[in-house]
Design goal:
136 residues; alpha+beta; six-stranded mixed β-sheet; 2 helices; 34% strand; globular
Length: 136
């Protein structure tokens, strides 16, 4: 046979992540392309690069952090950050828009399960940081 036409060595694989954040209050946090593609049909705002940057800043600087109320309890963390304030004369309860991010706690690095916009905060059980400012 002739010479091998292909270069020797490893091929560079495409990055399987949307982002990987290190040294956040939650430890290392990853958002995979697989999870991103699964949730894209339900949350079209994920296509916007501005929204992804809001998700990143919300993970680094969370305003409110809650435990998940779904089963199994306390395995997920839910982050809310206010992104805009508006006035709704019909129902004053809906005066703001929030970014809601669900992070799976039991993995290392922690994984973003989903992220989307929300009108209200549904969760009730608040989660507070430890004395070092970390949510672990």
């Amino acid at each position: 046979m002739g010479k091998n036409r292909f270069k020797k060595g490893r091929r560079k694989r495409p990055d399987p992540n949307i982002f990987l954040l290190q040294n956040t209050p939650f430890g290392n946090v990853i958002f995979t392309k697989e999870r991103y593609n699964n949730h894209l049909q339900y949350h079209p705002e994920l296509q916007s690069p501005e929204f992804i940057s809001k998700v990143k800043t919300s993970i680094y600087n969370p305003e409110k952090v809650f435990f998940s109320s779904r089963y199994p309890i306390n395995t997920n963390l839910i982050i809310y950050n206010k992104i805009e304030k508006s006035y709704n004369p019909i129902n004053p309860m809906y005066n703001a828009r929030y970014v809601k991010i669900v992070i799976v706690r039991k993995r290392n690095p922690r994984k973003v399960a989903t992220a989307f916009e929300r009108d209200i905060i549904k969760e009730k059980k608040m989660f507070y940081p430890n004395k070092y400012g970390r949510y672990v």
